[in-house]
User: Fold these one by one.
Assistant:
Number 1:
Amino acid sequence: MKNIVTYAVNLLLCMLLIIGIFSCLISSFEINANIFVITVCTALFCCVYGLLSVFVKKQKKFFVSLCVLALVFALIMILSLGNFLAELSYVLTKLFSKYSVYMPVADSITIGTKSATNATAFFVFLSAVFSGLFTVSLIRYHKIFIIIPLSVLSLIPCFLLVNTLPNLSALILVITILLTLYITSALRRHNEKQSGAATLIAAIITGILLMIILMLNPVKDYKRFEWQETLLKSLPNISMNRDGQIGADIPSELEKEQDLNNVQSTVRTHDKVMEVSADNESGLLYLKGVAYANYNNNKWQILTDSQLKLYPQSINAFTITQSILSNTEYLSKVSIKTVGGEPVLYTPMYITDTSDNMDIIGDVCISNDSKQKSYEFMHNKNTNSLYGLHLVSSQSYVDFVYDNYLQIPNRTMTDLYSIALKNDLTDIDKKEIPNAVKNFVSSRAAYSLDVDTLPNDKDFPVWFLNECDTGYCVHYATAATLMLRTLGVPARYVTGYYAYLNEEGTVSVSSDNAHAWVEYFDDDIGWVTLECTPSSFLNEQIPSATERQTIAPSTQSPTTVTQASTSPNNNGKSKNTSSSIAIIGVALICLLIALSIALIFIRRNLILNKSKNRLQNATNNQTVIILYRKLMRLSDHSHLVIDDDITRICNKAKFSHHIITDEEVQTVRKYAENSFSEFSNNLSPIKKLYFKIIAVL
C-alpha cells in the first residue's frame, strides 16, 4: 500500500474526531456510557472502512461491500432492538432534560418496553455510521464536505444547554481536527503523498495554539452567549397537557421586574398596609411577597414563562419545608388583614399548608386574584428545628433550583469572584458560605436611606461593594444574592414586608416596613432566609425596597455568556499578573510560529538533500526514472502533457535491459528543467512560494 503515512494519519484523525464528538455529547448531557468500549469499536470500524476504501478499487465492488456491512449492522440492531430502543429512550430523556428550562418536555421518554441507564450500545451504533461516513469521505474521496457539517451539527446541542460545557479536552481535540482538515483540504486533493505529513504538522501546531488560547482565557464557569439565549427563546413553546401544574396565570399588576437603575434616596410615608397577628410568637417576622430569579442589566425579574412551564408540577415550594414534627411547640398561626386587595398573598416562611383556592405561581408567589383582604397561614416559627430532618425529598425541584437560581451574568460573576477571592470567601465549606457572605456584605457600607444613584455603565452589586459608603436593603440583598450564586450557592432576591411582633404577637405594618432580603437554598430544608442588611434597619422603619412605580411587565431572560470577561481589576497585583501572563502568551505564540517555520524549512531541506543524493548516486536508468516521476508529479499540478519521446526513454529505462546513454539522460534532464521553469513562471507569488516551500516541487 502506497502512502502509508497519509493513510495512517487520516485514519487516526477520523477515529479521534468521532471519539471527541461523542465525548462532548456524553459530558454535556451527563450520559452514562463506557467510553473505552466506544473507542475500541470506533477504531475497529475505522480500520475496516479504511481498508475497504484503499484496497477495493472498483466502485461497484466497494458499494457492494458497504451494503454487506450495513446489512450486518442492521441485523445486529434488529436482534437487540429492545436494548437499542431502551438506550435511545435514555439518551433522549437526558438530552431533553437539559432543555427543560426552555421547552416543556416530559420527565422521561419511553420508546421501547425496557428501560436503560447506559448508552454504550447506542453510541457504538452511531460510531459505525460516523466511521463509515468520515473514513470513506476522507480516505477514498479526499473530501470533507460531509465531515465538517456533520461534526458541527453534532456539537451544536452541546452549546445550547443551561450551564454546561462539553469536556474541554474533547472539545479542543474536535476543533483542532476540523481546523486541520479544512486547512489541508487543498493539499490533500492535489498532493496525496505529502498531505499526511503536512496534516500531522498542521494538527500539532493548531492544537498547541488552541491550548495557549485556552490558557490565556481560562473557562471558570460556562454561561450561554447572548445569541444562544436569543435562539432558545425563539424555539416554539411546545404545549403539553400537564394537568394540575402549579403556576399558570401571572397577574398583570404583579411587579415582574425590579429595576435597580432607579434606586435612589427615599423617605418614609407611614402608609398603613396591613395588620398582622400571630399566636404564641413575637419578634421579627418576614412576610414574603415575590421571589425574583433572573438578574441582568441591573434588573431583577421573576421566572420567565418558559421557565415556569418546566416547574415540577407536583411540587408546592411554599410547603416543601413544612414542619413534620409531632410536637406543635414550634407551630404558629399568622393572621393577616390588609387595607387593600394586594396582588399577592404575603406568606411567612415554612407554612404547613395552602388552601385549594390559592393560585400558586411556581415558587415565585401566591397570586391574590380574588383580592382577599384577610387570610391566615400556619407556619414553623423556628428554623433551627428543621435542620437535620432532610425535608427536601423532591429531586426534581432540587434540579429546578440549581438550573434557575445559579444564573448570573458573566461580567458580574467575574467581578464578584475577584472580590470574594480578595476577601477570603472562596476557600470555605459550602455550609459556611451563607454566614460568611452575610457578615462580609453587611459590613461593606453603613445603612442609610440617603444613597447615591447608580452611575451609567456600572454593575449594581459590584458598584455597591467597591464604591458605596451607604446603602439600604436593596443594595445588601442584591449584592449578597449574587455573591452566593458566584460561590455556587443557589439564592434569590425576595421582596415583601418585615413585621416586628410585640409580646402580644401583633403589629401594624406600614409602607415603611417594605423590605428586600435573601433566600438561599439548603439541600436539606429548602429555602432559608438570610438577612444581610445591618440590624440598624429595624430602628429606621425603612420604606419601599424600590421606588413603588408601575413597571411594565417583562419576560426577558438573563443574558449569560460562556467565558469570564477580562474586566478591570482593582487589585494592582492582579493587573500585573494579567499583563505578565499576556506577555508570556505572546512570547509563546511567537516562539511557536518561529518553530513551525523552522520545521517547514528543515523538512524542505531534507527532501531536497534526499533527492540530490539519489540523483548523484543513481545510474543513467535510475536517473531517467527519478526525473520522469518528478514530471509526473508536475503533471498532477499543471496541464503538462509529457512528450512521447521522453515517455519512450523512461519506458526503455524501466522495462528493458538496455543501458540509457548520456545523451538520453541529458535530453530528459533538459526537458524536465524547461518544464519546471515554465510552470514556475506562470505561477502567482503565493502559489510559487507554496510549491517551493510546502509541496517542494
Number 2:
Amino acid sequence: MQKGQSDIYVYNIIAGSYEQITKDVYDDLNPRFIQHSTEIIFSSNRDNDTLRFDPVIAPKSLHFNHDIFIYDYAGKKPVLRRITATPLVDEIQPMSYDDHFLCFLSDQNGIYNRYLARFDSAITFIDTATHYRYFTTSFPVTNYSRNLLEQDVNIRAARIGDITFLNNHFELATSDRIEPKYLKPLQTRNTFYENLKMGLSQANAPYAGKDTIPKKQEVFSPTIKKHFTTVRISETPNIGNAKEFPLPSAGQVTDTLHRSVSDTSWNQRGTAFSHIPAKDTTNKYRTSRPLNYNVEYSINKMVTQIDFNYLNSAYQPFTGAKDPIFVNPGVNALFMVGVTDLMEDYRITGGVRLNFNFINNEYLISYSNLRRRLDHELIFHRQTIEESNNSSIIRHRIHELYYIATYPFTPVFNIKGTATLRYDRAVYLSTDLSNLQNPDINRYWGSIKGELTYDNTRSTGLNLYNGTRYKIFGEYYQLLNATNNNVVILGADFRHYEKIHRTMILALRFAASTSFGSNRLLYYMGGVDNWLFPGFDNQTPVATNQNYVFQTLATNMRGFDQNIRNGNSFVVINTEIRLPVFRYFFNRPIRSEFLNNFQMIAFGDVGTAWTGWNPYSKSNELFTTYIDSNPISIKVELMKEPFVEGFGGGLRTKLLGYFIRGDLAWGVEEWRIQKPVFYLSLSTDF
C-alpha cells in the first residue's frame, strides 16, 4: 500500500529486493502464486485486462465489485487473463483448490459463498497452427446463511479453513477438502436485497450477458423500505417540501469519487423523478494525500519476571590479576515497560533490575526514533557492581550514555554505529582505616563502535532457525581524563542453521575476538550464558603485564567452569543438533507449550583464550606458573594444550514463560575427559 493505492509486489527473500507488478488506482487484493507455478492470481476492480503504470482514470469508471485475474509473472506479459467478468458480483480471495480447479468467494446471491472455477478451452480456428479460446466454468459449492469472511485451502493437508461471524464472535471452522469430482453445484437463493439490486440495475448493466457465472434471478418490483444514506444537498431533488431521498441504482453510489448518481431518483414510495441532474464537484482523479496524525503513545510491552541476566552487556571493570573473579548477576527481579506511538515511529523503554541484596541494581531508559530509514536511539544505563578481595570491598558505579544510529542497506543487512560516554567510579567501602583512606577512582571513557550485521534467518519455532546470521564489529575506547590509555577491540560472530530432516536442525557457530592497545580487554572462557549457578576457576593464572581495564565472558564452552582459559583473545566453535521431539513425530499443532517447545540437544564445543600472537606463543600466560615460598620465588614453564573441548547433551523447553536449558557436559583438557558438569540456564540459541 503506497499513496493510498493497493498494488502487487513480488518480494525476493534471498536478494532482499522487490518488484512492482501493478501501479494504478485499481484495488488489487489477495494476490498469491497458484499451483507452485509462476502465475499470480488476484482479485481487482479493474475494468480492462491490460496493465499500465499510472494510467489516467476517470472516477466514473471505478467500480466497487471485484473480478478474478491471473498474471503471468514468468512471461511478464502486460495482458492479464480474466477468470470472471461479473460487474454486479463481488469475487474475492482466489486460490488454488487442486491442480485443475480454483476457488474464490462470491456474493452472487447476496451472501459470500465458496465457488469453484475450472478452465476450459475450445478450438476457434485452424490455419498453420491450432488456435484455442479459453473460458472458465464456475459453480457454488456452499450455500450458507451468512457470509464467509475468509477462507484458506491447504491442498497438501486436504483441509479447508473458514472464518464466519456468529453471536458477536469470529468463529474458525475446518473441514475436509472434497475432490471436485464429488462436488455438485448447489442452488443458491438470492437474498431480498440482491433481488432488489438486480431489479433496479438489470436495465443499466453494461456487461449483461457476459457473466461467466450463470444466474437465474427473480426480478422484484422496486418496493423500497426505509433507506438511510448520506446525500449531498446538491443531489437532493427540490420538489416542494416533500421528504424525498434519492436512492442510487445497484452498482452506483452517491460517492462522486467512484461512480455518479443515476439520472433517475426514487422517492420513498418507489416512484421516479425523471431527469433530475446530479451535481458532481469532482472533475478529475486525484490520489490521496498523507495527513498528519497526532502522536499518541500506548503501552506495547510490560515485563515482570525473575531474571538471571544483566539489562545491558557492558564490559565490567577488571577486578585484578591476583584474585580474578567475574561478577555474575545472580537472581534478580526485572521490571520493564515499553511504549510506542500508533505508527511505531517512536519508542520509549524503561527498565530496572533489582538484586536481592539491593546493591547490584541496574537501571535503563531508551528513546528510539524509527521514522526514517536511518534509525536513531539514545540509551542511558546505570549499573552497580560490588567486588571483594582479601582486603577490600569495592563498589563500582557505572554510568553510560549511548547514541546508536542504524542504517539498513537491505532488509537483512545493516550497518550500525555507536558513540558512548562512560563514567566509572570505584568506591572503597570503609571496612577499616586503610580502606577509609583510599580515594575514589574516577574514570571517564569515550568510545565508538561500528557493526556490520547480516541476518536472513527464518524462525521455524522457538530456538529453531533456518539460514545464516553474522556480525563483524570493531570498538575503540579512550580514557578521557588520562593520556595513553586506550583499548581497541575487533571481533566477529558467524552462525548458520541447516535443516537436517523435517524440524530437526544443525546449528553451527564460530566466534572470535581480540583486544590490543595500551590497555586491553580480558576474556574469561568457560560456562554458558545466563548460568543460574555459575562456578569460577581461580586456578588458571591471569597475566599481570597486559594492563587489563575491562573483563567479560567468552561463551559457550561447556564442560568447565568460567576461566578455564583467559586472555586478550579468544576463539570458539559450537555445534548443536536440535530435535523438537513432539513436533518431529506429531504432524499436527500441539497446544501444550511445554510439549511444543520440548527439545533434545547434542552438542560439541572447542575453543581457547590466550595472550600473545597465537595460542601456542611462549608469551601465553597459560604456559607459566609461579611458586612463591619465602625466600624463594620459582617461575615454572609448562607445556599445555591451549585448546579445550566439551561434549554432551541437554534438554530444552518452555516452562512458566521461561525457556529453560539443562545441559550435561564432559570437558576434555589435555586429552583427558573430565568429570561431567551440569548447567541450568535461561537463554536461547547457543
Number 3:
Amino acid sequence: MSEKNFAGYSKRREEEARDRARRRRTTRTASIIAAVVIIIAAAAFFVNSDYLRGHTTAYEVDGVKFSAADYKLLYSETVNYYYQWYIYLGADSGSAPDFSQNNWSAQIFDSSTGQTWGEYFAESARSSLIEIGTLVRLAEQDGFTLSDEDKAQIQASLDETLESYKKSGYKSFAVYAKSAGAHGMTDAAYIRLNELRELAARYSEWKSAAFAYTPEQLTAHYEKNADTLDYFTYRAILVKPEPVNEEDYADDANGLANAKLEAMTAAEEKASAYGERISALPRDEREAEFIKVAKEYDSALYAADASTKSEVLGSALPSVAKDWFYEQVRSCGCILVKRDSDDADAATGFYVYLYVERSSNDYSARNFRQLVVAPAAVDTSESIYVNEDGTPNEAAIETQEKANALEAQSKAERIYEEWAEAGFTEDALAGLIKEEDASGAAADGIHDDIPKQSTSFDKEVMDWLYSDERKPGDHINIHGDGGEWYILCFRGVGRTYADVLADNELRAADVTAWQEGYRADAKITAGWGSRFV
C-alpha cells in the first residue's frame, strides 16, 4: 500500500473510531438521562404514594406519632358527623355546611372570626390528635393499660366495623378510608388508631373515677348549692296573644306594633285572671283547678293531666322565674304570672306557674339489673305493608305488630323461666342479658343510683323500684306501656341522691380543671408527613 493510500486509510479509521466514541457517549448519556428520569419519576411516585401517607409522621403529640392517614381519617369522621346533621336537618339548619356545594373552605363556620368550615374541620382533627396523644402519654405515666378483656372487646368491635364496610362493597377498610380521603390508611393502622383512642377514653374515665370526696365535702357542697341541686315540681300554662294579621297593617308599622302590644296585653290579663281564679281556692284544691284551667285554655295541648307538670333540677328552672322558685317561703299552691322572656320584644306570651313541691333529694336512689325484650319493628317499606296506591296497609301493619308483640311476650316469658330455673341469681341474669338483650343495655344490664325523677325508664319500672315493699333480690317480668318487657332484679338502695348530685358537680369541676391543665401543657409538632395533610 502506498504511503498516500495508507494515510487515507488511517484517517478513515480515526474518524470511524471517533464516530464510535461519539455514539458510545451519546448512548451512555441517553441511558444516564433515562435512568435519572426513571429515578425522578419513581421518587415522585413514592413521595406522593399512599405508603408515605400511612407510614411517615405527620404530627407528634408528647411522643405519640400520628400519620397523615390518621389525621385524614379523623378529619373525615368530623365531616361525616356534620353530613349526618345536614341530611337530618337540611342545608338551612345552620348546624352544618351545605354539602351540596362541597366547598367547605368557602362557607363560614364562625362569622365573628371568619373561620370557614374547612378550617373548623382541620382544627377538630388536630384537637382529636392532641387529646388522644396527651391522654395516651398520661396513661403511660400512670401505668394505666388496657386489660386483655378490654383489648378483646376492642378487637371484636373493630372486626364488626371492618366487616360492615366490606358488606357495603369495600374490599377492606383501607379501600373505604381512601374513598373518604384517608389515603394510606390500612386495617392495621385503623386498629392501632382505635386502640389509642380507646386507651385515651378509658384512661380518662379511670382518672375521673379516681377523684374522691368525703361525706362532709358532699354535704357542704349540696347545702351551698341547694337552689340549683334541689328538685322542683311545678305546673305551667303558656297563655299566648291572639295572632295579628300583618296584612291589615301593610303600610302602617305603628299600627302593627300597637296591635301586637294590645294582643300581648290581653294575653297578660287572661293569664292574670287564670291565676286569680286558681288562687281564690284553698291550697289543696288549686292543683286540680290548674289542670281544669289548662284544659279550658287549650284542650288539645293540655289534654293529659300530666301535660302541664314538670320535675326538674333547680338549675333547669325557667330563667324568668328562678328567683321566685328559689324563695324558701314557697309552698304548694303558690301562683306566679310572668312573661316568658325578660326581653319584651322576644316574648311570646305569659306563663301561669303553680308551685307544687321542692325536694332536697334526701332519699336513697335505686340499683338494679334490667333485661329488655322489645317487639321487632315492622319494616313498613316492604310491599306487603303498602297498598297499590302507595298508602300504608294499616291492617297488615297492625296484624304484624300484634304478632311481633306476642313473639316478644313469649320470648320474655321463656327467658324469665330460664332465670327461675337458675335460681333468680344476679349472675344468671347477667349471662342472659349478654345472650338475649339487643337493646344496647349497660354492661351486664346494671343501673345504679337511679333517682325517682328519672325518665329513662318506663313508669311501671320506676313504680316497682320505688315501692316501699322492695327488698334486695326481688325480681319481676313487667310489661311496659311502650310494648317492651322488662325483666328486673332489685339490687338494693344506692347512695343518697343528694350525695350523687354533689359528687357529680365536684367531679365535673375537678375533671374540667384536670383537662384544662393537660391540654395547656400538650405539645404537638409537625413532622415530614404533614405535607400530605
Number 4:
Amino acid sequence: MAKRIIITVLAVVLLMAGVVYYQVNARLVRLTPEFIAELQATVAMENEAAITNPAPQPAIQHPANPLRNVYFGDLHVHTAWSFDANLAGTRFDPDSAYAFARGAPLRLMSGELARLSVPLDFAAVTDHAESFGLFEGCADPQITPAQREFCGLFDTPSLTAFMQLRNQAISRPPVRMDFCGADGAFCLKHGKTTWQKTRQAADRAYEPGIFTTFYGYEYSPIWPKRGSTHRNVIFRNRTVPDAVVSAFEAATARDLWRTLEQTCVGECAFLTIPHNLNRYYGKAFSMVDEDGHAYTQTDWVRRSKYEPVVEIFQAKGSSECALGVSTADEECNFEQFFALCADGEHEACAGPGSYARDGLKFGLSVENGLGLNPVRNGFIGSTDTHNATPGDVEEGDYRGKSGVSDASARKRLQRRKFGPAVPITHNPGGLAAVWAEENTRDALFNALLRKETYATSGPRIRLRFFAGWHLPGDLLELENAVEIAYRQGVPMGGVLTAAGSQAPQFFMIAQQDPLSAGLHKIQIIKGWYENGLVKERVVDVACARGSPDKVSQRCPDLPPSVDLTTCAVDWTAGKPQLEVVWRDTDYQPSLSAFYYVRVLQAPTCRWSSYDAIRLNQAAVEVVPALIQERAWSSPIWLPVDKQPVFNGRLDHQPSALDDGVTVAIGTAPVAPGGRKTNQSPR
C-alpha cells in the first residue's frame, strides 16, 4: 500500500511539474556513475572541433535612454529545483543559472559545455510551483518512512509505474497527495522555503543597470494527452506573497488571477505569461475556462490587466500560428511541435484556438460583442530550458533542453517510435526582447505591461515598429526618426485611435544580429473583423534583394548559399538592415484591426545539421537542414471609434477562427483537416 501511494505521488508531481516530455520521449533512467560515464564517453566521441561558434563577447551595457534601449532576456528557466529537470539529471541551482546568463560556462552532466556568445540583459528562474517544498521536505529529518522511500525515487524513477498511474493522477481540481500530509501543510511549509531561496538567488544576481532578475515561478496545471495550460508568474519587485500559487491552489487561470490579486497587495505587482499555446488544445482562446465555465466581465478585465504578453516561441515550438489552422500563411509552417488535427481530433495535434494569431483574431471577435478586447497580447520568446541555461539559443550550441534525456548529438537525432512529437521537433528556444529606458526591474516590467516587446527565435535581431497617421514622408532619411515616431505615433504594443478616413502609416526598422546572418525580408500581418468574420492578410514590405512583386506582394527568394558540410554563415546572403514606411491603403476605419511585423533572416543551419556534423554524417532527412530564424513584433491595434457596451452576455458567439477569409502570399488555403509535416522547408 505504501509503495502504491509513493508511486502515485511521484506520478502526480511529475504531471503537475509539466514533465509530459519525459513520459513519451525520454527514458527515465537511474543516474548511476556507470550511466554517466557511458554518456560522457559517447559525447567525447563527437567532433566538437568541426563546429565553429562565435567567440564569447562581453556584456553589452547601455546608458539610460529616454528613447529606450532594447534588452534581451529569458523569462522561462528551470533549474534542479524543478522536479522534472532534477529527474533528468540537472543539478544546477538558480545561482548557477543566473551566472550562466551573465556569461559563465556550464559543464552539463553529459560532459557537453554550454556557454552564451553574449550575456543576457535579464532573466527569471521560473521553477515549477508544484515542485516547491519537495526537496526541502525530503531533507526534513522528521519525515516518515513512507516519505523517505518516496524521496529515494528521485534517482530511481519508474516509467512503467508512471504510465500505469498517469490517468489516475490527473484530477480536477488537482489534489495534493499523502506525501504533503492530510491538509497539505507539510509541502506548503517547505514550499515557502523554496520560494524564499528563489527570491534570494534573484537578489544576489540583480545588478541594476547591468543585469536584471525577476522573482518568478511557473504555474503548471496538466491535461491529458500531453496538453497543458501553463503560465509563468513574474513580479515587479521584492514585495511579493510569502507563498506561491500553484495548480493545487488555483485549478484554472481565473483562480490564479483572483488568488494572486488577493495575496499580492501593497507595492506588489505581477503579470502572468502563457506559454506553449500550441498545447492548450483550444483552451487558450475561448469563451469558457479550462473547466468549461463561462468567463465573466470581471474575468475578462483581470485577463486584460494581468496577461499583457504571451510567449510565442520556445523549445517546444512556435505558437505564432500553424499552416492549415485558420491560415494559409506558408511561413506559419515553422518549428511546429504537432501535426495538424485530422477530422475528429482535438488533442495532441495542431488545432484552432491554440496559437497567438488565433488569439488576436479572437480578441477582435470578442470586442465586437463585448466592447472590450481582453486579449490584446504582446509577444515575447524564451527557452523553457530545463538545463539551467537561460538564453542558450544558438543553433550551433544546442545541447538539448532536458538533462540526460536529450544529451549527446546522437540521442538528439534519434527518432522515437511513439508519440506525435519526437525529440528532433524541439529547438533551442527563443528570447524576449524589451524596449525600456534602462535595465532595471521597474523599467523592464513597465515595458512588459505596455507590450513594447517582441520575440525572436534566437538571434538578437533589433526591431522597431510604429504606427501613426501623419508620419513625415522623408522619415527614413531623418536622424531623429525614432523620436518623431514616438511623438507622432505609437510603438509596438500600442493602440492607435481612429482619425477619420485616412490610411495609417507603419514605420519599421530591423537590424541583423551582428553574430548571425543578414535579413531576408520584413512582413506585415494584418487581421480585421468584417461582417461577422475575422480575416487576415500577409504582405512583404521590405526585401533584401529587389522589391515585393506587385501581384504576389512577395519578396524574391534568396539563392541557396549555405554549405551543409561546415554550416558557415554566408554574410552576403541578406542585408544588415531593412527599413520601410508602409501605408495600408485598404484600411477601413469602421473595421477593428491589428497589425504586427515578422522579420525573416537569411537561411542558416538548423541545430540538427550541426549535430550531424558532430557525428560526421549527412543532415537528417526528417527535418529541414536549414532554418530561417525570425523576430515577431508585438501588434499595434486600430479599434473602431465606437464599440458595443458590455451587457453581461454576448449577442453572438465569436466567429469560428477558420471561417475567416485568408489572403496569404504565395499559397492557397489548406483544408482544416488536412495533414501536414510538422516541420517547414526553409
